[in-house]
Amino acid sequence: MQGQVAGQLDQTPLVPQGISPARTLGREDAPLQKRRAPRRPRRGTGAAAMDIPPLAGKIAALSLGALPLSYALNYVSALSHPLGVALMSALILGLLFMAIYNLSPGDIYYDPLYAVFTIFAFTSVVDLLIALQEDGYMVGFMEFITKEGEPYLRTAHGVFICYWDGTVHYLLYLAMAGAIHRRKRYRNLGLYWLGSFIMSILVFLPGNILGKYSSEIRPAFFLAIPYMLVPCWAGMRVFSQSRAPTSCIPHMVQEEQRKGLLRRPVDLVLVIYLTLAGFFTLFRGLVVLDCPTDACFIYIYQYEPYLRDPVAYPKVQMLVYMFYVLPFYGLAVYALIVPGCSWLPDWALVFAGAVGQAQFSHMGASMHLRTPFTYRVPDDAWACFFGCNLLYALGPHLLAFRCLQWPAFFLRPPPGPPAHHKKQH
């Protein structure tokens, strides 16, 4: 009934009472018609339409299907063999893709990442079930995965990457799929997810191969190969999307880029933070490389003994920080000093997602009961450890927020000579 009423309203011209339709086409009443036209009810929308992309209902329904499915599969005897787990996982993902294709072919043609986000939303629910079961909050759901499929998910690091994937990634998948369905832009969300997803892969897969669980690699491990290829393809599609338009006029850009660093206190604080975070990143990289100095020895035994854990995840994490995040911090300092570095807002989002995921997993695993007691954070060093690592996680997010809120300094300057340079005659 509401759709019929909206349709009738769309077909009825807006004519003010007491004025003939012919007069509405005149010059005097044209502005009135233009002012009232945007108030017409839109077909299929509520009274207060929002620009925020809605969470995709179909995706949420399909992903929550992991609950009964995982409970039923937990009692299938064929899944007591590692090869059976791998084949069943591949079969489920294939059937899920076919279901998505039949339900939303138009969305997939518009953006193939719609199918990717739907499948990953399903696996996010599976990961959340694994984490809740390993922590004892539920029983009888995903035991076949952790026993015969991927036993390294039972580590403290594995539990926390499952928590992150089942919460943060899951919400991102729903939001991005909803944006595709409504044909809206999701570039910023996609960049944050891309950094988070890549960081998880860069640490988790090498840690499985190099750590103490390297002898327990099962056939299900090779299902991670598509997970290594998807970020490359998804990253190219996300970066190729157009940026959100800004309200910065050329005069505003010139005025902002004329300011020195001392006249921009927020950027000055960020430069100081990035410099200190860079030294901290280098220091922890040297610690896991067995640097013989007294400072490294004291730190690894008294402040962060988790770096000695034989699971290898913390060592790989610190090396990824040193070889990837540290160069970015140096480039970000340069971009905060030299105007016109238009690449910084995008990459700040990518590294914010990467560092956020990494610090969540690292901090959680350092204090989790699955980590042996000798490798957990000592009680007397807990405040120092938590404060330093929390600041390390928040800094890239503050940098990304600054770049998105006030982008004028990073925009390319308009062509022509600068406004403040005038020739003297």
UniProtKB/TrEMBL annotation:
GO terms for biological process: lipid homeostasis; regulation of lipid metabolic process. Keywords: Membrane, Repeat, Transmembrane, Transmembrane helix. The keyword Transmembrane applies. Pfam families: EBP (PF05241), TM_Tm6sf2 (PF26083). Residues 1-49 are annotated as: Disordered. It is a multi-pass membrane protein. Residues 1-11 have a biased composition (Polar residues). Residues 110-235, 266-400 form the EXPERA domain. GO terms for cellular component: endoplasmic reticulum membrane; endoplasmic reticulum-Golgi intermediate compartment membrane. InterPro entries: EXPERA, TM6SF1-like, TM_Tm6sf1/2. It is found in: Endomembrane system. CDD domains: TM6SF1-like. The chain crosses the membrane at residues 83-101, 113-132, 152-177, 189-209, 221-240, 261-283, 318-337. The keyword Membrane applies. Residues 33-43 have a biased composition (Basic residues). Belongs to the TM6SF family. PANTHER family: TRANSMEMBRANE 6 SUPERFAMILY MEMBER 2, TRANSMEMBRANE SUPERFAMILY 6 MEMBER 1/2. This is Transmembrane 6 superfamily member 2 isoform X3. It comes from Acinonyx jubatus (Cheetah). The lineage of its organism: Eukaryota, Metazoa, Chordata, Craniata, Vertebrata. The gene is TM6SF2.
